[in-house]
TrEMBL record, chain A:
<protein>
    <submittedName>
        <fullName>Oxidase</fullName>
    </submittedName>
</protein>
<dbReference type="InterPro" id="IPR023753">
    <property type="entry name" value="FAD/NAD-binding_dom"/>
</dbReference>
<feature type="compositionally biased region" description="Basic and acidic residues">
    <location>
        <begin position="136"/>
        <end position="148"/>
    </location>
</feature>
<dbReference type="Pfam" id="PF07992">
    <property type="entry name" value="Pyr_redox_2"/>
</dbReference>
<dbReference type="Pfam" id="PF04324">
    <property type="entry name" value="Fer2_BFD"/>
</dbReference>
<dbReference type="InterPro" id="IPR036188">
    <property type="entry name" value="FAD/NAD-bd_sf"/>
</dbReference>
<dbReference type="InterPro" id="IPR007419">
    <property type="entry name" value="BFD-like_2Fe2S-bd_dom"/>
</dbReference>
<feature type="domain" description="FAD/NAD(P)-binding">
    <location>
        <begin position="9"/>
        <end position="370"/>
    </location>
</feature>
<keyword id="KW-0560">Oxidoreductase</keyword>
<dbReference type="InterPro" id="IPR041854">
    <property type="entry name" value="BFD-like_2Fe2S-bd_dom_sf"/>
</dbReference>
<feature type="domain" description="BFD-like [2Fe-2S]-binding">
    <location>
        <begin position="431"/>
        <end position="478"/>
    </location>
</feature>
<dbReference type="InterPro" id="IPR017224">
    <property type="entry name" value="Opine_Oxase_asu/HCN_bsu"/>
</dbReference>
<dbReference type="InterPro" id="IPR051691">
    <property type="entry name" value="Metab_Enz_Cyan_OpOx_G3PDH"/>
</dbReference>
<feature type="region of interest" description="Disordered">
    <location>
        <begin position="113"/>
        <end position="148"/>
    </location>
</feature>
Length: 518, 381
């Protein structure tokens, strides 16, 4: 069967969200053998989350007006013949030879044991294992727990990266207090666990997700005293054509806007939570007015009592598996890095494709469209049928993709963090929480030791070396490094994480010997 | 003196460049350091911070290492504790009695050359390292082996030197006068003037030499380091198997791995060392990771359940005879080389910097620099 070392798959799709499923369905329909690997137990990805089994949730669609469209896609996937390899944590993809890729994954007995990078809802929940390690967290030397994970290697003639995006966090004083959760994390908690982060939840940050989160929280029974959006919404007005061409997006915004009105939730633009108050957990937040550069205007702080804060600053594409193979990236209008893709979703490295948020955030409909395009392109290449890519269907998909992509870029541009946000940080605010590195020590590395980029800051302070490997603090560290001095600033580069998830040494040692080494 | 002129320009803001700047500035010279990347952005930032005498056979490199060991000890008192200097000692272990006999012979020769060694019989290995695998043939402890955090060491050396540091500025040309003597460099940001230029560009030292009309056959020799999750102190020394010494001395292009295992003050255990000549290819090699993990868990079985959090590759600056190039270029007056330290640059940096500073000021060299003379490759040109 495909998957044994002797028989590779034509296509391995990494990620079982809308992009990955659409790509798999399409490629399988065109005659390819396909496997979809994903860390989660069920398909759907970050957006179409299933309630955990055992909660007895009969109607996940209640939280999702798009659920029927997903159910249709899932149905086609299940009938497609493509394999679904759940609970697979991909830690690297490597080139085996000119025509073959190796996808290296860990399969745990408890598939929740390895972080996939985006699943953690609690901003305040320590990513564990942080600090100096000298306390050992109560573990004895005999008690290391990772031995049950089994390494698996899949071979593929083509790979489709549909790994989605992770939430972008910007730190501020008090963000490590229990009760502070990621906005996307709050929504994920709601969808998969049907639990609320608190009773009175302030929603803050930037981006259209905030509106969706606020209305979901309110619909689930929380009181949302306020949504604080750091940008204005005027940014959209600068790209009227992208807006006019995407009426469904306006409709979505109107739905959420109506929901906010119904629940009487005020939306304050050019406002941000600049401090969190509380001793053991969140008791209140300070919301300040911002200028155009996101600097807090003195004297505008208002204290709002609450027991939770859901905060998010958009999404950052998860590209490390692809960048590890040399795939080129581009800087998005909001300062993250996304894969460079051609008109048929191929990366700069032939044989590797990507779809969905890996090419820039843009929502599930764009992801599904790109997945289908990629599926066709892979089949055209592997079956040597270039005519497949010249069909009317491909032209339609490409047109839709371009339209939605243009809108997405306009949207992220409107919500790009202003340079003034770093002034919210006290010197003793932890920026890297895994390694407990403060804003002060990062500023010191920049001003005194000459760090000009995130990698050098990491080498000199350990910021980004901990459990989350900089997924949480990377954006903030890059901003702090760049704000040190205009002279000699090294442009920020895309994340490089040769190990996409931690791998037990025992599992590495148990890998089969790679061919081609003396 | 204008902002663009100084007594000496050091090309390279890694640990060797930083040490050259530090010792040159201490003799009263004004120093400018230029690097196309950031501080410690090349091989220094990818190193483990080994300050080793244990892996060196008697000869010129060992002499350099012994001097450096003393200098690092002094620097540890002069620089902030942030450089994470640890005089923790090395432990070389032999797999069986046969390997132990060879190691004993090697250590005896080292002791003759001034290295402090201490034999640890097989039945006492676990007192030194409680988590070592059972059944090993014994080992030798080397108390002079130490460690620093290399990027911090380089950054603090640079800061303490008081040198002007120009990062993100690539040297595009070496400026020379009527008689071919060095007058400075032209970078992407303009001209810098100095009567001396020190090539401390590490693995890229060959390119800098070429810009000046010199020749230095530096080649990259790739190595991977595996970094685990933070642990309590599981590994006390820098521990490696005796085969490591043979790998270091080999010039083979093929992949060689021999695990070097050590804990760090921050908690993670570092696992090196692989060697292969594959150019500047950073692509992950799963086979290298497999071998490193297999060898490390063979030495310390307890590590099998520990997760590797990350891995990174670096490129050791390799010269054909495994010795660095330290001293004046035979053809270009005013150009000095201080590069090609292979995997030992962190350890050998202070002695190199001191030697270069003495040469810049016409002082007595701190040791015989003959074996390191850059002109030794000229005949082959």
């Amino acid at each position: 069967m495909p998957g044994s070392p002797s028989e590779p798959y034509d296509l391995v799709v990494i990620g079982a969200g809308p992009a990955g499923l659409a790509g798999a369905v399409t490629a399988a329909r065109l005659g390819l053998s396909v496997a979809v690997v994903d860390a989660a137990a069920q398909t759907g990805g970050q957006y179409f989350r299933h309630p955990a089994p055992g909660l007895g949730a009969a109607r996940p669609q209640a939280l999702h007006h798009d659920w029927p469209a997903f159910a249709e896609l899932r149905g086609r996937f299940e009938a497609s013949g493509a394999a679904h390899l759940a609970g697979h944590h991909v830690w690297a993809v490597t080139r085996q030879d000119e025509e073959m890729w190796s996808v290296h994954a860990l399969v745990g007995e408890d598939s929740g044991a390895v972080g996939s990078g985006t699943g953690s809802a609690e901003v305040s929940g320590s990513p564990s294992g942080g600090g100096t390690g000298s306390d050992g967290e109560g573990r004895t030397h005999e008690g290391f727990s990772a031995e049950r994970e089994r390494p698996v290697r899949l071979q593929a003639r083509a790979v489709l990266f549909a790994t989605g995006a992770g939430e972008r966090h910007l730190p501020f004083p008090g963000w490590t207090l229990p009760g502070v959760v990621g906005a996307g994390g709050a929504q994920a908690m709601l969808k998969s666990g049907l639990v609320l982060p608190g009773q009175r939840v302030v929603v803050a940050g930037s981006g259209p997700l905030l509106l969706a989160v606020a209305s979901s929280l309110a619909a689930a029974g929380a009181h949302v005293p306020e949504v604080a959006e750091a940008s204005g919404y005027l940014g959209y007005a600068r790209r009227p054509r992208a807006l006019a061409a995407n009426p469904h997006k306006l409709l979505e915004a109107a739905v959420h806007g109506t929901a906010l009105l119904r629940h009487r939730i005020p939306l304050r633009t050019r406002s941000a939570v600049t401090a969190v108050h509380g001793t053991d957990r969140v008791e209140a937040v300070t919301v300040s007015r911002l200028d155009r550069d996101w600097r807090a205007l003195p004297g505008t702080g208002r204290r709002i009592a609450c027991d939770a804060l859901a905060v998010g600053h958009g999404l950052a594409p998860q590209t490390e598996l692809a960048t590890g193979l040399g795939c080129a990236t581009r800087r998005t209008p909001d300062g993250t890095h996304a894969l460079v893709l051609d008109g048929l979703q191929e990366t700069s490295v032939p044989g590797l494709w990507a779809a969905g948020e890996t090419g820039g955030t843009g929502g599930w409909q764009l992801a599904r469209t790109e997945g289908e395009l990629a599926g066709i392109a892979v089949a055209a290449r592997l079956r040597a049928l270039p005519a497949l890519t010249r069909s009317r269907r491909v032209r339609d998909l490409a047109r839709r993709r371009d339209r939605m992509r243009a809108f997405a870029e306009a949207m992220v541009a409107a919500h790009a963090p202003g340079p003034g946000w770093t002034a919210w940080l006290d010197d003793d605010t932890d920026v890297c929480r895994c390694e407990e590195v403060t804003a002060g020590s990062i500023r010191d590395a920049v001003t005194a030791l000459g760090a000009r980029d995130a990698r050098t800051v990491k080498l000199l302070t350990r910021a980004g070396m901990g459990w989350c490997q900089g997924r949480m603090c990377g954006a903030a560290v890059a901003c702090l490094a760049a704000s040190g001095t205009a002279q000699g600033t090294v442009p920020p580069s895309a994340d490089r994480r040769p190990l996409a998830v931690p791998v037990p040494l025992g599992a590495l040692a148990a890998l089969p010997e790679e061919p081609g080494h003396a | 003196m204008s902002n663009s002129s100084s007594d000496v320009i050091v090309v390279g803001a890694g640990v060797v460049g930083a040490a050259c700047a530090y010792y040159a500035a201490r003799t009263g010279l004004s120093v400018t350091v230029v690097d196309r990347g950031p501080v410690a952005g090349g091989t220094t930032g990818a190193g483990e911070g080994n300050l080793l005498v244990s892996d060196k056979e008697p000869g010129p490199e060992l002499e350099l290492a012994l001097l450096s060991t003393r200098l690092w000890h002094e620097l540890a008192r002069e620089l902030p504790a942030g450089i994470e200097y640890e005089a923790k000692g090395g432990l070389v272990v032999a797999s069986d009695a046969h390997a132990m006999a060879a190691l004993r012979k090697f250590a005896a020769a080292q002791a003759e050359a001034g290295v402090t060694t201490e034999e640890i019989p097989a039945d006492r290995l676990h007192e030194a390292e409680p988590h070592l695998a059972p059944g090993l043939g014994g080992g030798f402890r080397y108390p002079q082996d130490a460690q620093v955090q290399p990027a911090l060491a380089a950054a603090h050396l640079l800061r303490a030197s008081g040198a002007r540091v120009r990062t993100g500025e690539e040297v595009a040309a070496v400026l020379t006068g009527a008689n071919g003597e060095v007058r400075g460099v032209r970078t992407t940001a303009g001209e810098l003037h100095a009567p001396f230029v020190v090539n401390a560009a590490g693995t890229w030292g060959g390119e800098v030499a070429r810009l000046a009309g010199g020749r230095l056959p530096v080649l990259p020799r790739r190595g991977f380091v595996l970094v685990t999750e933070p642990l309590p102190r599981v590994v006390r020394h820098k521990v490696y198997a005796a085969d490591y010494v043979a790998d270091v001395a080999s010039g083979s292009a093929a992949l060689q791995t021999s695990a070097v295992v050590e804990g760090t003050p921050a908690g993670p255990v570092l696992i090196g060392a692989s060697r292969e000549r594959v150019g500047f290819d950073r692509t992950l090699s799963v086979e290298v990771l497999r071998r490193l993990a297999a060898q490390a868990t063979a030495l310390f079985p307890v590590l099998a359940g520990v997760r590797a959090m990350r891995t990174y590759a670096g490129f050791r600056p390799y010269l054909p005879d495994h010795l660095p190039a330290i001293g004046p270029d035979p053809r270009v007056p005013g150009l000095l080389h201080a590069c090609g330290h292979e995997g030992a640059g962190i350890g050998l940096a202070p002695a190199t910097g001191l030697a270069v500073a003495r040469q810049l000021t016409g002082g007595e060299p701190p040791l015989d620099l003959g074996p390191f003379h850059p002109g030794r490759f000229a005949a082959a040109a």
